[in-house]
Amino acid sequence: MSRAQALPSEDRAFIALQKAADRLAMQAEQLLKSNGLTGAQYNVLRILRGAEPQGLACSSIAERMISHDPDMTRLLDRMEKRNLITRRRQSDDRRVVKTRITSSGLELLKRLDPTVRELHKRQFAHIAAARVRTLADLLDEICAEDGK
Question: Model-level pTM?
Answer without folding.
Answer: 0.85
